[in-house]
Prior knowledge:
alpha+beta
Amino acid sequence: MQIAGLLGIQLEHSEEIPGKTPAFDRVFLTVSSTTDPLLAEVVKSTRRFFEMGPKDERVEVVYGAGKPQHGQIRLLTRTMLGVLGQIAYQIDVPQEDIDSGRTLPKIILVGRNTKPTVFVHVSNERPHLSFVSIKYNNKFYYISDTDFPSKLGFTMLQILMELSKTTKNPGAVLTIPVNG
Length: 180
C-alpha cells in the first residue's frame, strides 16, 4: 500500500521586493494520484470534498469563504486556541474534580458527529497502552494506543501547531503611560 507522498501540505515563503511587494506566505495542499485502488478512492473523495478537479494534484489554500479561483480552495478555520479549546471541552474528567469545582464536565457533542476528535481518557493508574500520556494532579491523562482516529487527530494537531508558529517580528510596540 502506497501512503507516503499521497497527501502533502507545503508552506512557501516569498521574499519582499523592496518598493514593490511585501513578503508573504502561501500554503499549498497536494493530493497525489495513486495506482492503489483503495487509496485511489480516498484521493477521489478528498478532491471532491475540497471541490478540486479530478486531475488537480496541487491547490493553494486561501483563508476565507466564497467561490475560490481555479487552483485554490477556501477554508475558514478556527484559531489554534479554538482548536485546543474544542479538544479540552471533550476531555474525560474525573467526577471528583467536577464535584470539587476544580473543573466542569466535558461537553457532550450533538449533531452528526458525536465522537470527540481526540478522545482523552483519565485514570488513577499509569496506562499500559498509551500513544501519549501525562500525569497531572496524581491522575494520568492519555490517548489510547488502540484509538487510531484520536492518534491521527492528535498528530494533525501537532502538525498544525508547528505550522502556526511564526518567525515574524511583532509590529509596533505601544507604550501606555500610567499614573502620569
